[in-house]
Specification:
Blueprint: E1 16-19, E2 33-36, H1 39-75, H2 79-97, H3 115-119, H4 122-125, H5 130-141, H6 158-167, H7 178-184, H8 188-213, H9 223-228, H10 238-255, H11 258-261, H12 269-285, H13 292-298, H14 302-320, H15 324-339, H16 341-345
Helix pairs in contact: 1-2, 1-8, 2-6, 2-12, 6-8, 10-15, 12-14, 14-15
Length: 358
């Protein structure tokens, strides 16, 4: 269910219109036209301009680079090109961590096939679909007919399928030995699957980018403008939607054992987790003087800001120590901050239907 479909209390915002343009004149894709009236709107605008838009551009570029790398590798497979392919998958996975917490708008604008679930199948129910994807790949390797990659179920593709193809053999041994993985591509059908999956993830990344930057659905507006208007198409507050999305993302990490159950073949789950917490920290700290934390400090919530910063530091410390139990405990505390201290300090109501699962 898309986050913005939840029944929530709308926080009305009275704002004055201001247009930000690039210093060189004209408008770039990460320039934003937005309305501001106080520091919350400034923080929202800075978030979109300095974090969300660069994030969706980065994910699109990483997906494009992986697709190019897959084609280059498949033209003449070598050990060097396989290493490059695997490195590009790692960069793709890490770039996804930059934007997955923004689970609204283009990431989640289709109740039946939200992009977030087709890119990260684990997100839906916390089920590891490695066996499902392997079985599908094994069946397809024995066929010669075309695959409609755009029409596959969410649990048959995405980043997981690309990781399986790039880092392991397709037989029952599922070997991760690089020589064995390289030899496995002697079956040209495996390259067909790799390129097809890579193209679909690239298409999904382009869709997310275009929705934020060019036009969202058939609204005639980019989602950056819709978001910064303060009210989303379902009449929910964009700020409330943001806070709920981040809280649900942290809840997902805590409850689904993401650290131990994802990116197992590539062995970058800790890198992913560090990128994830850095994204949460950046959301709060901002990159300018206009941030959610500066607003909270100005409103007299210094103790809360200090506590949240300490919680973020605890998450990072646990990751550095590779202490999964401490990491998940610290994520749980931060999850609670997004349920209580942060919305209270920002004068945001999460609504009667919001469930505090602590």
């Amino acid at each position: 269910m898309p986050v913005f479909k939840k029944i929530i209390t709308v926080v009305a915002v009275s704002i004055a219109s201001v247009t930000l343009l690039s210093s060189c004149g004209g408008e770039r894709e990460n320039d934003v036209n937005f309305s501001i009236g106080n520091s919350i709107e400034l923080a929202q605008a800075a978030l979109v301009k300095d974090q969300i838009l660069p994030g969706v551009v980065g994910f699109k570029d990483s997906a494009t680079n992986f697709y190019t790398s897959a084609n280059t590798f498949c033209n003449s497979p070598t050990a060097t090109k396989l290493s490059s392919l695997q490195d590009n998958w790692k960069r793709l996975s890490i770039s996804w961590q930059e934007i997955e917490l923004f689970n609204f708008g283009p990431l989640n604008d289709d109740i039946f096939s939200p992009k977030i679930e087709f890119i990260n199948s684990y997100r839906n129910r916390g089920i590891d679909y490695t066996g499902t994807v392997r079985a599908f790949i094994k069946r397809e390797l024995a066929k010669t007919s075309a695959v409609n990659f755009a029409n596959l179920n969410f649990n048959q593709g995405g980043l997981l399928a690309l990781e399986i193809l790039s880092f392991s053999t397709s037989d029952d041994s599922a070997s991760t030995d690089k020589a064995a993985v390289l030899a496995d591509f002697n079956n040209a059908r495996k390259c067909y699957l790799l390129k097809g999956y890579a193209k679909q993830v690239k298409n999904d990344a382009v869709y997310i980018h275009n929705g934020w930057v060019n036009e969202h659905l058939a609204t005639g507006k980019p989602f950056k403008d819709i978001y910064l208007s303060g009210i989303l198409p379902d009449d929910s507050s964009s700020l409330t939607t943001l806070i709920i999305a981040v809280q649900e993302h942290l809840d997902y990490i805590k409850k689904r054992n993401v650290l131990s159950r994802t990116a197992k073949l590539s062995q970058i789950s800790y890198d992913n987790a560090l990128t994830n917490i850095n994204a949460v920290e950046k959301l709060l700290e901002g990159t300018t003087t206009n941030s959610f934390f500066t607003h909270m400090l100005a409103a007299g919530h210094g103790k809360e800001v200090e506590a949240i910063r300490a919680n973020i530091a605890s998450v990072k410390q646990a990751l550095l120590a590779k202490d999964q139990a401490s990491y998940e405990a610290a994520i749980g505390v931060l999850d609670g901050n997004f349920k209580r201290e942060i919305p209270a300090a920002l004068a945001v109501s999460l609504g009667l239907n919001f469930s505090d699962g602590d």
